[in-house]
# Entry
Amino acid sequence: MSTAIDQRPHDLLQMVQRASGRPERGLRFFRQGEETEFLSYAQLYEDAGRIAGALIERGVKPQQRIAVVLPTSADCVRALWGVLAAGAVPVPLPPPLPFTKPRKYAERIRGAVERSGIRVLIGDERLDPFLREMGVELEGRVQILCSPQLRGDTSVHRAQDPNAAALVQYTSGSTSAPKGVVLTHAQVLANLEAIVQGLQVGPDEKGCSWLPLFHDMGLIGCLFASVYRGIELLLMSPEDFVLNPAHWLRLFSKYGATIAAAPNAAYLHCVRRVSAKTAATIDLSGWRTAMNGAEGVEPETMRQFAEHFAVSGFRDSAFMPVYGMAEATLAVSFSPRGEGVHVLRVNRTALGEGRVVVAREGERDAKELASVGTPVLHMDVQVRDARGHELTSDRVGEIFIRGASVMEEYDRDETATHAALKDRWLATGDLGFVFDGRLYISGRRKEMIIVRGQNFYASDLEHLAGQVKGVAMDGAMAIRVQGDGTDSLVMLIENRQSDPESQKRIIAGVREAISSVLGVAPDEVVLLGRGGLARTSSGKLERYRGAEILLRHREQQRQLEQADTAPSLPRVAKGDVEAEAVA
Amino acid sequence: MTAIQDEVVRIICEALEIQTSEVALETSIRALPNVESIRILNAILRVEKRFAIEIPDAATFQVETVGEFVELVELQLIKNEELAAQRERAVA
# Structure
């Protein structure tokens, strides 16, 4: 297929200008199923100029990093392009969470603010008092601007250098290890071209997304890709999706959306929360491409979803497992469009040993893996062993990527940049293999925990737990436990307390520390005695042994319960604990 | 506990699927078990429906404990009453 795209843009601002040629095209915003606003691409281009005018009046310089902390809204999109039109660099960060005070929110974004030297933050009217208080928390070093008030007297669209930074994507915003991926206009555009070609997006298709705009999949994969292709995009908030996933599914019926992306857990959420009766009232027959990425793709979840929504006319050939990461801009590999999920059953024990052995029919010791396809345009993928040698197919190793859209630096962080990049090859930390020409992911980065579609650094979780009174410094370990469709987060905590009241306080404290900063609730907080965690001789946590520690702890608990005189209910395990394959 | 306190606590417990014994007015909401964002949103939505009030997003950022949340609900109820009284006066 030809690209069918004339005059490729050289920067992200030109991209909007090009899309604005069709005045009826733009972004439609929805709240609880009702359309609330339409922002045409032409209007977006004009509004961006006005915002840029206001920013420049306030002294914003080219390449200056500016945080955008807005919920999914037209204001958020205007602010992103307003910053770009001013020649500055937007840094999208998560907006605050309910029931957290400015102090906690400041803790969540402080790492990014300091690392990228952010002096200006664009927020929103409703958050005004909150943001003002936050300004105090950040000791007044950050000027906080309210987006609806940003309208300059003049409209400015500064010329852009395609090789200058266009965006900083934080993969982790909190204090322990903030890493901001710096991407140039050229890099982002290279990935957008790869995405649009990989999806074979037709000129009249429609996207539809509830993914947060401060994450790569929502920002690049949905928002930027739609603008790049000049197609309409229907947008709703993640909150609306979690409360009622039927709102999302109805956008396919009512507004003719054809393309969407979501993590595995979201498909499971739809199965669990949308009744069969409701499913029968929704028409999904026009849904052409259902990307599944950001966390492990579970074949079983895809089957459940296809079965549950068969009554809605959903076709399982629409499924498209994908693989990507912020460091690559977004897309690394795509399954072929229209083929559905390609499943491989392998021997589980052999996989743990790094070998790919296809399981025999009916074999019990088998694991199903969904292929994430082949590398996208301008992307090279290699699987390497621990010494850095490229492996032949059928062998598990670490995935390395190189290409036109792969970052060249983390913002102001030479140490992290050197650790990740060698000869322009980026070590992803993910484990996988190539089989029959297709890429499979068999294990995620050891330091990364993916729960309910969101990525968290274990070090961030541990750092927050470590600050709770009663938890020893470095006395917390975050592990993930594989469950049904999505994984759960377990915190292992070393402590000295033995009375139940103090123990309860520690457990509540750990939950609060993590939830109020990162918004995720640990599924379980397990208290261990001193020395209960595994460490290397130099005192470094051995996270790969977390599963083993949890299993042993549960076994001990079971024995204690059995030792009690009264018969007790069996302890319900939260999913099977499974030690991850370690290269 | 007052009737409003009881009701708010009941709704929170229902949304988080926890026992009322785990909740006191001084408990931080974020310290409760199962505080996933979806459940928190659910709790807010249910409280809004139950009391026929609207809780502004910004207000939830000023609130940390269960007791503070109850106060927020009471405040919105008072606002509703004032609005109703105004309307009555306007009609009369």
Notes: The radius of gyration of chain B is 14 Å.
